[in-house]
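Let us work through a complete example step by step.
Step 1: write down the sequence.
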Amino acid sequence: MRKYLLSLLLFSVLFARAQPSAVGKISVDHKLVKKLEAAMAGFHGEAGIYVRNLKTNRIAEVNADSIFPTASMVKVPILCGIFDKINRGEVAFTQELIYRDSLKYDNGIVGSFKDSTRIALPKIVHLMISLSDNTGSLWLQAMAGGGATINQWLESNGFANIRVNSRTPGRKENQAKYGWGQTTPREMAELVAMIRNGNAISPAASERMYRYLGMQFWDGEAISQIPPSIRIAAKSGAVNQAKSEVLVIHAPHGDYVFCVATKNQQDQAWQKSNEGYALIRKLSAIIWNHFEPKNNWKPLPESEKFWF
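Step 2: predict the structure and record it as tokens.
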């Protein structure tokens, strides 16, 4: 009996650490778990998902504590890193930056600037989150003190598994395995929930970050399964063998957060039919209909949508 109680206590401590922004008693939504498991069965790769209803604190999870590549979801912790610097007074939010050719990573918007182009920091942040601009993101990562500084902030806030790997000393092996960043579905969902709840860095920083997360250009996967009238904060990511997305949905019957991630996918095609993209859309629709069963809205058939 004593051994059982010690094991239960240890599980409770670890579970709490993995959910730094979860408040109150948490229970499992077994019906939703079964729906998610059925939808994920047969996926050619590995997939994980974590869902929490922020009104009821009921959760559903499948492989929620497995580590996956973040791909561009890593820009959420970078966002926290740069706002932590701003909050400390080490970076001015409205300051003007000067772009240099040495910063170029790819041919995105920021990477297309001419040398000596002047641009305000808020615009770089916006491009990082809304358009997922890589050159701008690496620029902000450096301004935040680098991956090591961002990882220290994550650790101090209870996130044991979210890490920035790229351009971070001591993390070459992790970068080789997971890429730019790594996370569990649970932790990435709870990081965005922390921002939504105003508990990341400061209420003012959380509010500004959450507004950025609410302006998404890449809305063709999980977001496409939610009515366009519903407010959503999100960030997605994709590399050849991994697809991911994290969202807070302000649903009529209560907000909910979820994160889905894949890795080691057999399907590496950069098309809308990619199995990872298809899984994200399927899971998003299942969760929406589970929480909003009487909502009559249906997404357009994929053949009728405007894709980009």
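Step 3: interpret the result. The first helix runs from residue 2 to 17.
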